[in-house]
Automatic annotation (TrEMBL), chains A, B:
PANTHER family hit by this protein: GNTR FAMILY REGULATORY PROTEIN, TRANSCRIPTIONAL REGULATOR, GNTR FAMILY
Protein name from the UniProt record: GntR family transcriptional regulator
SUPFAM superfamilies, per database record: GntR ligand-binding domain-like, Winged helix' DNA-binding domain
Organism: Roseivivax isoporae LMG 25204
CDD domains: WHTH_GntR
Keyword set includes Transcription regulation: yes
InterPro entries for the chain: GntR_C (IPR011711), TF_FadR/GntR_C (IPR008920), Tscrpt_reg_HTH_GntR (IPR000524), WH-like_DNA-bd_sf (IPR036388), WH_DNA-bd_sf (IPR036390)
One Gene Ontology MF term: DNA binding
HTH gntR-type domain: residues covered: 14-81
Listed Gene3D superfamilies: GntR ligand-binding domain-like (1.20.120.530), Winged helix-like DNA-binding domain superfamily/Winged helix DNA-binding domain (1.10.10.10)
Any Pfam family matching the protein: FCD
Keywords: DNA-binding, Transcription, Transcription regulation
Length: 232, 232
DNA sequence: GTCAAGGTAATTGTCGACAATCGACATCCG
DNA sequence: CGGATGTCGATTGTCGACAATTACCTTGAC
């Protein structure tokens, strides 16, 4: 028999590839490498002190999450975003997340999810008070939405969300600020939580569509003005 | 200046990796390697007369399309499907494709898409008459649905569809037959086409939800009985 | 001065080899 | 005889090197 309450949990043995991928993703999202920039396998491999093989595999991983684009015989490049692409992205998010939240309320484990949602909302307020760490704010926001997809009960929604999460982060970081008021941003998640707690499917979908929709408007507008300011 | 309408399009120079990936995907979907089977890099590389590197990259590609599962330090395995997973898959397809068809009718280029839909429906009838080539039927079916996602105007829907297309094919092939009557299957696409042509957004979403929903029911039921017949 | 052609440097594509890790069998102890 | 431990073969993980392709720069003609 096995110990029902083991003293040691399974050790996360993420290999070299995952670590490299994480480093690259962070460098891109944090803006240390600019969109459109070439990602030289040799250079990155040399910098990290590893061979090209893991770098190449990591880059392919990042390609799936939309951060990187691959062109045959040319290499990997940091994904460039347009306001139109961001608009499409947000439209897609609305579809995914409203379906996820509807399923969550209808058939998911709301009881188990609520404390996690509350904790995440608390985290949102915490980083809002700190105020200056943009990346933390973005990630706290995305973590909240990820919880909803995770709690839906259909892993497809979570997979779809994870695929576009990094790209969304990149877009938000490019804009340079999340909302006019970080506090208001944190508070805008509360109605979603309330509708879930009330098992109000229609209200929940409406709340999240409103939430993402206003973010979509804000992001697209702001990005468009950036494009005009810095014409390619 | 360049020829605005070149006589020769860009030649698809799919490298070794893509060819290997295609071969592997076909072998899996066609059922030549069974679900759960190990995909030995060395063996495949030796069989194809190439090194392990392209095989490994191809396997990672197939992982993204859901055909293959990767376990660190253990290798690649053909994805196993359960009736529950298939049910989740079809639920997700309904969400994606009904959103895509709604956008298509509302803002897509219906005029340009209609002839392609008609051609695909004709192809569906053609393979239905042939009758015995299951893979062809499955692929003709998926191609029709892909057209809708492609015509939606938001490439996100197409990307999401392509990611789950191979997995859907695999599920259908595992079942061993598409519908009771291939002819009826072909005909069941006509109402979708009609609603699109009429620019009836509500009717189109209803038609495609009905279409995929009945397939979902059929597939899930049939797969469940298979599971009971061959208990793991 | 502009454009095309050729050569060259740099990068990716592929390969074979070695090291690390895993699963299974044999072995040892209670 | 049951369970834990040690060992072995096989497979993946990573590496450095060579071949193929690309992009850039130089050269030359008009």
């Amino acid at each position: 028999m096995h110990d029902p309450d083991p003293a040691f949990g399974p050790l996360a043995r993420d290999g070299l590839v995952d670590r490299v991928a994480g480093l690259m993703a962070e460098a891109i999202v944090a803006g240390r490498v600019l969109p459109g920039a070439r990602l030289s396998e040799s250079t990155i491999a040399r910098d990290l002190g590893v061979s090209r093989a893991p770098v190449r595999e990591a880059a392919r991983l990042l390609e799936n999450s939309g951060l990187v684009r691959y062109r045959p015989n040319r290499g990997f490049f940091v994904r460039t975003l347009s306001s139109a692409a961001l608009d499409n992205l947000y439209e897609f998010r609305i579809v995914i997340e409203s379906a996820a939240i509807a399923r969550l309320v209808a058939r998911g484990d709301v009881e188990a999810l609520l404390p996690r949602l509350d904790a995440q909302i608390a985290e949102l307020y915490r980083v809002a008070e700190a105020g200056d760490d943009m990346l933390r704010q973005v990630e706290a926001d995305m973590a909240f939405h990820r919880l909803i997809c995770e709690g839906s009960g259909n892993p497809r929604y979570l997979a779809a969300f994870d695929q576009i999460a990094n790209e969304t982060k990149l877009g938000l970081m490019l804009i340079g600020r999340l909302y006019d008021s970080p506090r208001r941003m944190a508070g805008s998640h509360v109605p979603i939580r309330a509708a879930i707690a009330a098992r109000d499917a229609q209200g929940a979908t409406a709340a999240i569509e409103d939430h993402i929709g206003s973010a979509r408007h804000m992001v697209t507008e702001r990005f468009r003005s950036l494009e005009e300011g810095h014409p390619a």
